Amino acid sequence: MSTTVATPDADETCTYCGSRIFDHDPICVRDCDDNCGSPMYFCNYACLSAYIDENNRTTGDTCEWIPDESDCC
């Protein structure tokens, strides 16, 4: 899977809150299960976390732990 790395514009805004990302500690996220579409920028981890929670982005994407199984740690 090939991805091009590019620095976003100086005025790029946060996907979640709309703040300028470079006024904070920016994070770039790309959904590579969907043909590595356009990157989404967040101004910090709090906005990324809130976006994940509000959009149910972990549903179906995480491991399931069943504590009753005999082979669990």
TrEMBL record:
Protein name: Uncharacterized protein
Organism expressing this protein natively: Natrinema altunense (strain JCM 12890 / CGMCC 1.3731 / AJ2)
